Amino acid sequence: MSEPLVTIEVRGLDSVMNTLLAPILLAEPLRVAFDRCGIAVSNEAKQRAPVFRGRLRQSIKWVTDTAQVPQFVRIGPNVDYAYYVHEGRRPGSWPPISAIRLWVERRGIDASPYAIARSIARRGIPGRPFLTDGLRAAEPAIRQSFAECGRGIEANWSQSGVR
After folding, report:
1. How far, in Å, CA of 108 to CA of 122, rounded?
2. How far apart are CA 30 and CA 128, in angstroms?
3. 107 and 38 fall within a common domain
4. Could you say which DSSP state residue 54 is in?
5. Nearest-CA neighbor of 12 among 71, 73, 75?
6. Same structural domain for residues 45 and 99?
7. How sure is the predictor about 22, in pLDDT bands with cuts at 50, 70 and 90?
8. For residue 133, with 0-12 CB atoms within 10 Å meaning exposed, 13-18 middle and 19 or more buried, which class applies?
9. Could you tell me the pTM of the whole model?
10. CA torsion 44→46→48→49, rounded to 10°?
11. How many domains, in total, are found in the chain?
12. What share of the chain is helix, strand, coil (3-state, %, to 5)?
């Protein structure tokens, strides 16, 4: 995935991973929690992403760590221009004329792509932080996912008979 990217990881998990019971106690509850977080953040980010052709929204995906005991989930788009949509473009930086030409043609705008690109280079464009805003909006779901994860770990602990 290209930038921007959100990663949710559990700090301190590596020290717990050194126990022999880590896979039994942690694996499934963490995988479920990370998957739920990925779904929640990507859905919120998709709702906040600007739409031209829909490629940006369609490209927002999430991937949970494939280790035996997952430690993170990554959420983000995989289109090249996502960074410029999310962060904006400072003055002095020219956008690709080919992308502007396509945008002008599809919008039916009667203007020179070069003139629009020059205007963007002069003034810049503001960012639209769809991913960051999506993360903030998904915070209650993230908190709930990890609360349920804790209950799942507790249930696994009590079933294992370890004290």
Report:
1. 23
2. 31
3. no
4. S
5. 71
6. no
7. confident
8. middle
9. 0.80
10. 150
11. 2
12. 60, 10, 35
SS3 (DSSP) at 67: coil
Read off the pLDDT of residues 123-134 as tens digits, 9 standing for 90 and up: 999 999 999 999
Clarify whether residues 55 and 17 are in a common domain: yes
116 and 46, same structural domain? no
> Is residue 100 located within the same domain as residue 147?
no
Contact 70, 34 (CB under 8 A): yes
In a domain, 83, yes or no: no
**Does residue 79 contact residue 50 with C-beta atoms inside 8 Å?**
no
* CA atoms of 88 and 91, how far apart (whole Å): 10
Mean pLDDT of the chain: 88
Would residue 1 count as lying in a domain?
Answer: no
pLDDT tens-digit series, residues 66-124: 998 899 999 999 998 899 999 999 999 888 899 889 888 988 889 999 999 999 999 99
Residue the block writes with tokens 């052709």: 53
What is the distance between the alpha carbons of residues 111 and 20, in angstroms, rounded to a whole number?
Answer: 66
Element (H, E) at 83: helix 82-87
